[in-house]
Automatic annotation (TrEMBL):
UniProt xrefs under CDD domains: AdoMet_MTases (cd02440)
Gene3D superfamilies per UniProt: Vaccinia Virus protein VP39
InterPro entries, A to Z: Methyltransf_25 (IPR041698), SAM-dependent_MTases_sf (IPR029063)
Methyltransferase is among the record's keywords: yes
Record key words, sorted: Methyltransferase, Transferase
A UniProt-annotated Pfam family: Methyltransf_25
GO biological process terms, semicolon-separated: antibiotic biosynthetic process; methylation
GO terms of molecular function: methyltransferase activity
Record carries keyword Ligase: no
Protein name, as recorded: Class I SAM-dependent methyltransferase
Length: 242
């Protein structure tokens, strides 16, 4: 039986034919019941890894959506927490989720990750989960530069990166097909809906972070499983402001 809490196929199609911002406004009430929400296992593994690297005071969840990443910040930060997103609908859901949260609640900010409305050096920690497919490769240097600006000296930019599927596997062809369909959609319809799964390879992300002024390290999240060759299925990328 279909789950009434999950978006229907027509609702997903309507989202995909909208702009990114409008699409997420439409999807927001049901977003947490889709597979697009970052799994709790990834959030918990990230929090455990960051606890060994702190302490952190103030933290930002970049492209926070409905606020799943705030769970991580509340686990590892002793000061203020904030979530930044450009979708009013997603922020509305986030505010509702944390309306009765004990203690000092998160500060929700509507804005563009490429031009975050914060003073330089505001945060010790910036995290992000599942949002980077919405940025084109040419936008990475600007995004990383802006993140570096809002971090304090020695601050950390952290986000999980899953190992890419091996060529020839079902997952590989699924992601390749999705990206191809999205490119066709954006070639024939405006406004574009930017969402690609294969545009953030580790080597290029590492290079752009170094050029933006970060020192980069990888922390394996072994509890999320390993591939046949023994390598972790997911790593936490840790970029430290130099």
């Amino acid at each position: 039986m279909s789950d009434p809490l999950r978006p229907t196929l027509p609702e997903l199609a309507r989202q995909a034919l909208s702009s990114v911002q409008r699409g997420y406004d439409l999807l927001a009430p049901k977003f947490d019941h889709t597979r697009y929400r970052t799994p709790d296992s990834v959030l918990d593994a990230t929090a455990r890894a960051l606890k060994t690297l702190g302490p952190f005071t103030d933290g930002l969840d970049l492209c926070c959506g409905t606020g799943a990443g705030i769970h991580v910040l509340r686990e590892v930060c002793s000061g203020r927490t904030a979530g930044l997103d450009f979708s009013t609908g997603m922020l509305t859901e986030a505010r509702y989720r944390y309306a009765t949260a004990p203690g000092f609640g998160p500060h929700w900010v509507r804005g563009d990750a490429l031009a975050p409305p914060f003073r330089p050096g505001t945060f010790d920690l910036v995290v992000s989960f599942g949002a980077f497919g919405h940025f084109l490769p040419a936008e990475r240097p600007r995004l990383f530069t802006r993140v570096r600006e809002v971090l304090r000296e020695g601050g950390t930019f952290a986000f999980p990166m899953a190992a890419p599927p091996r060529p020839g596997t079902a997952a590989y062809w699924t992601l390749l097909g999705f990206d191809a369909a999205m490119r066709v959609r954006n070639a024939v319809r405006r406004p574009p809906f930017v969402m690609y799964y294969r545009t953030w390879p580790l080597a290029e992300v590492h290079r752009d972070l170094i050029e933006a002024g970060f020192a980069v390290a990888l922390h394996p999240l072994g509890e999320l499983g390993r591939r046949e060759d023994g390598s972790p299925r997911c790593r936490l990328l840790l970029a430290t402001k130099r």
